[in-house]
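Ticket #4471: structure export looks truncated?
Reporter: QA, pipeline team
Priority: medium

Steps to reproduce: submit the single chain below to the structure queue and open the exported record.
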Amino acid sequence: MTHHRRYLALKRIFDLTLFVLSLPVLLPVVLLCAMAIRLESPGPILFTQHRTGRDARLFRMYKFRTMVQNAEELKESLAHLNILPPPDFKILDDPRITRVGKWLRKTSLDELPQVINVLKGEMSLVGPRPTDFGISTYDLWHCERLEVPPGITGLWQVEGRHVTSFDERLRLDIKYIDNLSILQDIRLLFRTISVVLRGTGA
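Actual output as written to the record:
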């Protein structure tokens, strides 16, 4: 337990230090993305959604808006096109996604506003992806992923995009949690950069 607390403390320092160092690059990119979203379609620049974080605490996660303004209202009418087992939801060639949104998703730049969540201590740069469904949906063995802060990127993003179910993704989360270290986080960040440069984002 002491090792776990030490790791989380170092992880927090690591997250904040990397954020400060990357600000000169992040700010211009964020501004360009915001301008592109504003110019293409009406609606807010940011999309917010409640997610389940560490210790099952709910928080509001930020992303760049990649869909039309009424995307959530259209979800029910498109439910029959869902290709993932519940509680996940994904549609191939989702008609709600804007042109700018497709580019943001392909480059993973839609995730950039989550640095706000990192600053607030709700997320980390690296960790299991926070789910958009509540703890009541989890089986008991799923709860292990809630022992660490959720991340902007993680093991699933770099080697598990082929998996389709929550259970399969969770096994990657457990693999990550069983090997917690700052060195592992650094490696995953570098691997994420490689994935983004290859254009294999979601």
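Status: closed, not a bug. The export was complete when the record was re-opened. Leaving a note from the reviewer for reference: The radius of gyration is 17 Å.
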